[in-house]
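Here's what a typical entry looks like (Ribulose-phosphate 3-epimerase):
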Amino acid sequence: MIELAPSILSADFSRLGEEVRAAGEGGGTVIHVDIMDGHFVPNLTIGPPVVKSLRRATRLPLDCHLMIEHPDEFIPVFADAGADWISVHQEVCRHLNRTLHHIKDHGCLAGVVINPATPVETLAEVLDVVDYVLVMSVNPGFGAQPFIPSTLHKMRRLAEIRSQRGLNYRIEVDGGVALETVADVVRAGAEILVAGNAVFGNGDPSKNAAALLKAATEAALQRV
Ligand code: DX5
Ligand code: ZN
């Protein structure tokens, strides 16, 4: 099943509740929340208080993408604030298996994220632990960057490994997903589509989300 996860990074932060509502009306079923620490990525965004406010503003699951060093220290805080899904970057986790279990122990779905330069093979030993794998299709840190096509083979590979090993993680993609690129990522196997600029950048977020989801669903039909 294809799901759209609007990323609030490109939303108007002074009207977050309304923006999230509009994205949901357009068919978004997961709200993607980008947490950046200014160390792992060269940008700073939001923290637990905003997640707590979002929790009151929507019933949709909150997908917290932690682009931070030392994520273990913050997992309990984000879980308490209302995160439903928490993902951590492979590149910062020295004890990835432990961190993923830590997320699950706090009642959240656990995801692992790989940067464009990180191979899928680095995840071999945790694919049976995770609920989802997030493939970055831009270098994390900013919205509205161009999609990196060489990341597509990683979505295909993850779908292949999943069927070979009989696993059931979901495949999420993040970065540069827009009307021009959405069919490619869906055909490659992505199922949860994060989109920031394409939803909130220009015009009506509800209409933008609906158009993107329609294009994605059409591409998924071609896949089978
Ligand atoms: C980038 C973030 C993304 C970002 C995607 O570091 O992880 O979630 O919001 O934005 P777009 O869809 O504009 O590329
Ligand atoms: Zn993200």
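The mean pLDDT is 98.

More examples are in the samples folder.
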